[in-house]
C-alpha cells in the first residue's frame, strides 16, 4: 500500500507540465491576436496641424546655379578717373524654395467628424533661402597700370549682384512651380499611414521675386 503514492507522482507532474504549457500557449495566442488588431487613430485638426508644423520649413526643391557678374567702382574726377576699378567674378550659389509651415493655421485644416477625411489648404510656396557657395575672381582691373589697391567693396558688390542673379535665374527656370507640385506630394505622403483620405489644396503660385 505504501507504493501507491510513489506511483502516482509521475502522472501528477505531467499534469502540471501540461497545464503550464497550456497557459503559456493561451497567453501567446492572446498577444498575437492583439498585435493583429489595427491601431485606431482619431485625427483632429490640431493633431494634423502639429504633425505638419513640426517640419518648420519644408524645402521641396533646390537649384544650384553658376553665374558671371561684374562689379565696378567708379573713379573720382580729381584723379581723372584713373582710380576706377572693375572686376569679373564667377559665382556658384544655391536657391531653395518650399513652404514656410509656420504660416499654416487651424483654418487651413479641415477634418471630417469621423476622422476619415482630411483637407489641407497649403500656404503659398516661397523662396526660403539663397546662398553663395563660392565667388572667384576671373579678372580685375585696378586703375591705370593696375597700381591701385583692390577696394574690398568691389567683392561685396559682386556677391550682392551674384545672389540677386541666382534668384532671378531660379525664378525664370520655374523654381516656385516645381516647389508647389513637390510640396503637395510631400504633404500627402506624411499621412499615408493614417488610412485617412487626404486632400491637399495648393495655393496659387506667387510672383517670383
TrEMBL record:
Keywords: Membrane, Transmembrane, Transmembrane helix. This is DUF4230 domain-containing protein. The chain crosses the membrane at residues 12-33. The keyword Transmembrane helix applies.
